Amino acid sequence: MMLLRAACVVVAAILVATRPPLLWLWLTLCLIGGVGLPMVAVLLANDAPPRPEKLLRNRLHRRETSHPDPAHAVAEREHKVIDAE
Questions:
Q1: Residue 15 zone, left/alpha/beta (φ > 0; ψ -120 to 50; rest)
Q2: Does residue 73 sit in helix, strand or coil?
Q3: Could you tell me which of 10, 8, 2, 11 has the C-alpha nearest to residue 34?
Q4: Integer Cα distance of 62 and 60 in angstroms
Q5: How far apart are CA 37 and CA 1, in angstroms?
């Protein structure tokens, strides 16, 4: 759509330079294309269904990773010892 808008602006500039018959009609059509197309593009871009609730969560918010009972969690976990020697 933005390519069509750019074409409308270029055609309007060429029309002003060449002064064809019915210039006012051609310039009006180019003006409608140059102003109307971006509005239509925004409306089409924003016309989407609402996002699901789980996608709207803050992605920076960490989930709880701790065990409900920290003392029990340490006992459950295997302890690995890395010896450098």
A1: alpha
A2: helix
A3: 8
A4: 6
A5: 6
Average pLDDT across the chain, whole number: 78
pTM: 0.49
Which of 58, 57, 76, 79 has its CA nearest to residue 68? 76
pLDDT greater at residue 61 or residue 34: 34
Q: Which amino acid is at 44?
A: L
Q: What is the pLDDT of residues 49-83, one digit of tens each?
A: 776 666 556 556 556 555 566 665 555 556 667 77
Give the residue from 25, 21, 22, 27 showing the smallest Cα distance to 8: 27
Q: Tell me which residue has tokens 């969690």.
A: 73
Contact 5, 37 (CB under 8 A): yes
